Amino acid sequence: NLAAFVKVTGDLDPAVETVGWFGGDIFAVLGPDKPLVKLCGVEGFGVLRVAPQPDGKYRLFNRELAYYKDPQSGEFIDVWKNPFTGEDCEVSPIHNMVVNAEIAPVMKMDFDGTLVEVPFNPPWTVMGDKAFSLFEVHTAFPNPMTVEQWPRESAGPVTRISEIFQRITSLEQLQDPARTAADYSGSWTRIGPWLPWMLQGQAPGHILYRPFLDRTGTADRLPRALRERAEQRHPEYFQAPGDETWGQQNDASFSTYMADRE
Question: Which whole-number Å values give the CA distances from 158 to 71, 81, 94, 139, in the listed order?
């Protein structure tokens, strides 16, 4: 199960770095009696490298970058107009240099300095030659961005986040011992608090991410506009983290925002 999961998300060959694309929309969830409101789009990529360990575990070295888009035109934006307040907000992209994890029978995942143990038992569903992979994490932890220090950026004392990754791959590729990786496409769902740069403070509600996923394998297969923007603004994100980053605290949207806007 561990090896199959690595094969569909990265590559069993430790010398290979895998690029994965994601893109979709972000919605505001305002309450049970109100429809979702489309806030903006998001598009980005991650670069993943896998390091097998002698005890059968796998270390995943990952780096991720994404930019936000205008909800109507789909163009990348640096300023976002808050539809609830009318305020122009400076956009902070997703730029996480280190997002490492170890997969084992029990995973230990770092959420902004809080270590969470997550049993690793992702289910598989097989339909003909299609294998469906599901991996999800649901957590709640103290918000590192306190209301006292960040009254307009902090959504409150507790951060509740759900991440759901659904991937579809070829069963033949997955079971072929000659292949170290299997192609996939799928979806990513994320439920979390308002992003700090939206300046929503403790306003009721939260946001929902609904992007697609796809293995591009290499950076040259990324959409041209995304690749060119990353080359100009964040060229260091085309390479996975090195071994020396193991043990460092993982980056997240909140920690990078606090570092950037200190």
Answer: 28, 26, 21, 10
Place of tokens 């080359």: 231
d(C-alpha 196, C-alpha 225), whole Å: 25
C-alpha 233/C-alpha 46 separation (Å) is 15
Assess contact for 155 and 191: CB atoms under 8 A. no
pLDDT tens sequence across 1-34: 888 999 999 999 999 999 999 999 999 999 999 9
Please name the helix (run of DSSP H) or strand (run of DSSP E) that holds residue 119, with its range, or none.
strand 114-119
- The first and second tokens of residue 121, run together, are 């038992």
Whole-number Å distance between alpha carbons of 224 and 236: 17
Output phi, psi for 75, to 5 deg: -80, 150
* Per-residue model confidence as pLDDT tens digits over 186-235: 999 999 999 999 999 999 999 999 999 999 999 999 999 999 999 999 99
The answer to whether the beta carbons of residues 167 and 184 sit under 8 Å apart is: yes
Reference 77, options 90, 68, 88; nearest CA is: 68
Q: Which residue has the tokens 């919605």?
A: 27
User: How far is it, in rounded angstroms, from Cα 233 to Cα 93?
Assistant: 11
Q: How do 58-69 and 94-96 pair as beta strands? A: antiparallel
Which is nearest to 209 in space by CA: 6, 18, 44? 44
CB 98, CB 245: distance < 8 Å: yes
Contacts of 2 (CB under 8 A, 6+ apart): 56, 57, 58, 103, 104, 120
